[in-house]
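Known limitations

Files may contain more than one protein. Parsers should not assume a single record per file. Below, a two-record file is shown to illustrate correct handling: read the sequence, read the token line, then continue until end of file.
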Amino acid sequence: MEKSKKIKIFVGIFYLILLSAFLFIIFSKFNFAEVASYQFIQLYLAYFLDFKNTNLIFVIIVFIIATISWIFLLGIVSPVAFIGGLIFGKWLGTLIASIGLSLGATLLYIFVNYFFKNLIKEKFLFRFKNLESKFKKNEFNFMFLFRFIGGIPFPIANLLPALFNVNIKNYFIGTFFGIMPHLYIMVSLGSGIERIINQNETFPSVVDLLFLPEIYIPIISFILLVIITGLVRKVFFKS
């Protein structure tokens, strides 16, 4: 337990150093008003997209590494999906974001399974004991449904399979395909925002945004997906 605490402290300090360095680099070159302005976003997004078009493989590798680091830091999906759509568009963005998130979640799972398994059991086993038989029944299928259905925050969902010794291959593939429908919707929203920024000198109002197909189609799709996964969750956990 003492060893686990030391590792947690080390990882926490490492992340704080990385975050502080990133913020220092940004704000040493620009002030907050510049960074928050629409013209700044429009200019540097165009510059970055041009760079991406000529250095696609490099940008993909950096994005995946950054996504893996982000999963270890906070584990929130939406910023990764949104930025993936902003940079790579709907289809490629969905694929790359799914790869990065799945790799990050899998590496975190291996890390937690090795160092913090007893702690995870202590914190979560009594709440999720009912999932054990489902994982053992068909590990891959349940891993896929576990990711697709959702309902559990992604950072916690990354850790729970450690309770049931899920095979690493099943964990990765189940995560990759299970999160893809949700990712596609969020990535589509990021891709839509990129087109809006590219085509408008000033950012549209909230009302105007809601009537743009780049925005309302992903929102409606998200609502439908929530309804579908909610129905599936009820049927699945009832059985």
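...continuing to the second record:
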Amino acid sequence: MALREHLLGEPAPSGGRMRRAVGSRLAALSLRTRLVLVMLAVLLISGAIVALITTLSLRHFLMTRLDQQLAAAGMRYSLSLEHPTDADGDDKGFDTVVGQQSGTLGGRVANGTVTAIGVVGAGDDYPNITDADKAAIAGLTKTTHPRTIDLPGFGPYRVSVRAGADGDLLVTGLPMTEVNEVVERLIAVELAVLAIAVVLSSIAAAICVRLSLRPLTRVAATATRVSDIPLASGEVSLPERVPNPAPGTEVGQVTTAFNHMLEHVESALASRQASERRLRRFVADASHELRTPVAVVRSHAEFAQRAGGDLPEPVTRALSRIGSESDRMGQLVDELLLLARLDAGRPLLSEPVDVTRLVIETVSDARVAGADHRWQLDLPDESVVVSGDEHTLHQALANLLANARLHTPPGTQVTATIRPLGDSVELEVADNGPGIPDEIMENLFERFVRGDTARGHANGSTGLGLAICEAIVKAHGGAITVRSKPGDTAFTVRLPSVLAQAGVATGEQWD
């Protein structure tokens, strides 16, 4: 860590940070991958433990057998090691002793010096004994148990050292080559088998995990399809359900819970739709029934004003207020009735509408109503025609222009623009007024949302104008958007260039 800090100039990661980093990487993996990795990790650990125990057990067994062979070789070799001299007094015969296996080593050490040494089979399969081998033998001491030494010319040997009758040391050794070869081959076989087992197990684990988690995949696919269903309004049906072949398993329990959740959501949406339908019917019926009494009140007020003669000033003012409020009430009733009809999906007319002429007419009307504003047109060279209901489109444009007139100060420039875009047409009403407050931007197209107070104009707005615009545009298969900042506020309506009759909203018929 100190080296990392010195070289990189940054502190080494602590154990806690490293664990968190590893945990975050694991958490980023899919459940399928994590399960397969866990299964492979368990297999590797189990295989490594079995291989280690097997290898150690086999080596211990082979070493025990080798020690037994060494003990037997030492007993048979004793006399030849004790006095192997010939008539001339030379030490010979260590490499020609009958009854000893090839590679058996024998030697005699007196006062730290090797006086005799030989290997059975020397000169055929074994090299000659070197001074380094003799030095390794000379350094041995008497032991009660065999030991392992490494002879430079012969490799590892298992040797036993006994005291001779003449005060010397008698050394007997057996090569460990076969033991090591058997152990090494076992390790190689274990590694190969473990590698094959890991490969096959990873394939089998991936298949099994994939099959086991298939219900979760179905749950995710069903949830994706349900998320694409519009749930905000209208009648909603959730026919999607996840098949559950194994309800007793954990995955099956998730599937069952998900299906129950879908049933609950569908029931709640059905209740919401029924409540909305009753509310729309009530609003429509109430608006329809209110039209007559409002008209009667307005007509009586007008009649009283015309035929009343010399009426006191308070009475005249009261009749005037009754007439103006009756007009406002009638407008509110008409707007509520129109919204109720649009919500219910009443079919609109589908006929060619000259949008260019429509914009010119609505802007002319707005110029008369708002002479203190500056009105401009930005129209293409040729007339633009869409298919729809001219009356409702006229009302939508009139509402947008009225909104710009009522909520901006005198002298504001209002521009109406038409942009043909091939498969669609954009109608934009923009002004350079103070803009729309941020607090009402999110709910701007909801009903009874007023910007009067925010823009400083108490104009008696019903708060339904933009809601009606949005409903009319959607009924024509279009969309309305708004952008606003001080000095630049624009409402953009996009309508399809050609609307098929089947694409127009359909629904209940109204009186």
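Parsers that stop after the first record will miss the second one. For reference, the second record is described as follows. Confidence is low (pLDDT under 50) at residues 1-8, 85-93, 453-458, 499-511.
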